[in-house]
Amino acid sequence: MRKTNLNKLNAIKKSVIDSCENYGIFNMTTAKIAKNAGVSPATIYLHYHDKKDLLSRLYEEVKSKLQRGVDKVINDNDSIDLQMKKVINFSINQYQKYPKEFNFVQVLWNNKKLLDQKAINFDQQLNPTLIHLFQKIHDSNEYVDAPQEILDVFFSIPLLIVERNHKLGNDRINQVSTMVINAIKK
């Protein structure tokens, strides 16, 4: 049995994320991924069954990385509005730290046919802290009764704005966060 070479595996993962940004998800081939990673195409298949498996596993890994730490910024004693604002600000900070990874997740979130069922199921399992917050929003009479998918879109609006203007100041980010929160109020 072969031993996993973590350097090669990490180079493959980095190559996928870079290739997504440089070539686009539909122009990305395992040959390009391997070339950019400095490995043979066969090396990719030592770790993944096919391109869909590669994208799916990396999607799960990156999404987990981007959500890691959100539970530390939310205080259950804060108002729901403040908790939402903290989640939005956390997401923006993560985007600013990991823009390529955010792009990768966003592209696959919008092209779920490229993911296997396990990754799609994973996508539907939010961090427990976020699940609790969304349940509080749903249970409150203060907010519209919207499905999770719609709330996800509203929460992604500040990220889209920051994506277009990387130098957005905190005042503007807070203004956008407040607008998003007000948009889901009754």
UniProtKB/TrEMBL annotation:
Keywords: DNA-binding. Signal peptide: none annotated. The keyword Heme does not apply. Residues 29-48 bind DNA. Pfam families: TetR_N. One of its GO terms (molecular function) is DNA binding. This is HTH tetR-type domain-containing protein. It comes from Philodulcilactobacillus myokoensis.
